[in-house]
Amino acid sequence: MEKKDNFIIGFIGAAVIFIVLYSIINLFTGFTYFSRSSDSLWVYMLPLIVDLVLARFMLVKWNMENTGRGMMFVTLVGIVSVMFFVLK
């Protein structure tokens, strides 16, 4: 089976992972979607940490640089967004 090393695949994969994990966490906790309180910071950061760890595996262990870069880009945008919108 051929490995697909593509920036777009990493970008979409990381975005999907973030949305799915964020939705699952919000489903089982009492936080509302897009809460701006500092108590809900972990709800945003946990999916970003999972994306970051998976991007590390893509870059180092599986030699998929372009896919890992796409995942890192989504993670960076997510962290900056959390800093500006949640920690405001």
Describe the structure.
The chain has 88 residues and is an all-alpha fold. It has one domain (7-85). It has helices at residues 7-28, 41-61, 65-85. Helix 1 (7-28) packs antiparallel against helix 2, helix 1 (7-28) crosses helix 3 and helix 2 runs antiparallel to helix 3 (65-85). It is elongated, with a radius of gyration of 14 Å. It starts with 6 loop residues before the first helix and ends with a helix. 20% of the residues are buried.
Shape: elongated
Terminus-to-terminus distance: 46 Å
- In round numbers, the mean pLDDT is 86
User: Could you tell me the number of beta strands?
Assistant: 0
β-sheet strand percentage: under 5%
Largest sheet, strands/sense/barrel: none
Helix and strand composition category: mainly alpha
- Oligomer classification: single chain
Helix share bin: over 70%
What is the number of independent domains? 1
- Spans of 5+ residues with little confidence (pLDDT < 50)? none
- Helix-strand pattern, N to C? HHH
- Rounded to the nearest angstrom, the radius of gyration is 14 Å
Work out the helix count.
3
Fold topology:
Layout: H1 7-28, H2 41-61, H3 65-85
Helix pairs in contact: 1-2, 1-3, 2-3
Task: Give keywords.
mainly alpha; 88 residues
In brief:
The chain has 88 residues and is mostly helical. The chain has one domain.
